[in-house]
């Protein structure tokens, strides 16, 4: 089955209430990135305008989004056919903030004439393909205010013409992928919502077309083998959900190929998504986390990492173990299993090599099994593979490069890096900005705002908070916390 078809003209959402301003005009908001975080902000802004929210300073804000991809896409490299969401659809782009919004997942289902059929599934976890289509449906409403296929390169400060020398606006410089031409947009407020940058461990930073990140799996892996070529062996490096999903998918995508999942851990571990632990992702928790001391906050985040990092959903673990058990029933020695897990193993290097007439990638692997029990596995190993898929997560520091030219505006106490206030506004030196100006960071504030910061769970409520702080109370006058937003939605 081909799964959910991508949104067509007939299935597009309604047009938004956001209006595109001219490139030469001073914008109220320029948002760099148009992934889920930015889309949630567009939805929250549209909802506020639709409700004629009296707290907004303007009901006709000049807004623009800049997105490097050619169209709205959400992790296209990980849209495996049968992969499911890890959070309930109730934590969509709007429901927790405003259940009556046009942009809820339930309204999307109603619009697509699948609401009854979805309820028959008896699940709160839609397939990832369908959730991607939901977000594309939402994004289709905002096409007029999104510049796709354009990458932001830097943010400059535009100083006031008065004697104060405070910054009166920001200049966002971006480049069009099609023409290579650069252009500028001026804005009072800039939101950086660019998502994560694929992380490759240093030992695997060897330039080779067949070393790819997990984010490229569905879009690039198959194209690396052409003219009837097929990989004989594939290595997956990692121990989390993405690594396990790819490892499980390889037999269907590359029939006949062997695969090895390389992990430093003693075993793949299940994610803890039990109801009490899941309260870690409640919007109200952000207030609690931010108010803690840095030491307590770091301890709390570390204690809750099993909810999100390096863990796998239990049902997938059971599928994998069942496959391995079948090998045992067939009396296959473990070293001859077509698909196996190399525990206690770390890749220490990689280089191109020859295995007979075949060009391969040769991994150097350090195995520590002997330190944990009786084992005849040698400590130093070499593994020849045709492709390496790195599933080691993401870095979230792109904002540092974008804000490089603003270093002089950083407070002296924050010399080690940019810091943000509770409402995600970047802290600048005193008197560096004119009133009602600022930059907001999204998805890179885990150290101050907790584990959900880079996840989908709090997007709807956080987006409302950001819109309120920019066009309502301002960066130093935020009036609503996440608790207020949720209670407000419940009382509508």
**What is the CATH domain class of the largest domain?**
Alpha Beta
What is the assembly state of the chains in this entry? single chain
What number of domains?
A: 2
CATH topology of the largest domain: FAD/NAD(P)-binding domain
Radius of gyration, whole Å: 24 Å
> In the CATH hierarchy, what is the superfamily of the largest domain?
FAD/NAD(P)-binding domain
| Residue share in β-strands | 15-25%
Biggest sheet features:
7 strands, mixed
Number of helices: 13
CATH architecture of the largest domain: 3-Layer(bba) Sandwich
Distance between the termini: 41 Å
The shape, in one word, is globular
Give me the secondary-structure category.
Answer: alpha/beta
Q: What is the number of beta strands?
A: 17
Unreliable residue stretches: 474-492
Overall pLDDT, averaged?
92
Helix and strand string, N-terminal first? Answer: EHEHHHEEEEEEHEHEHHHEEEEEEHEHHH
Helix content: 10-25%
Cofactor: FAD
InterPro entries: FAD/NAD-bd_sf, Lys/Orn_oxygenase
Catalytic activity: L-ornithine + NADH + O2 = N(5)-hydroxy-L-ornithine + NAD(+) + H2O; L-ornithine + NADPH + O2 = N(5)-hydroxy-L-ornithine + NADP(+) + H2O
Family: Belongs to the lysine N(6)-hydroxylase/L-ornithine N(5)-oxygenase family.
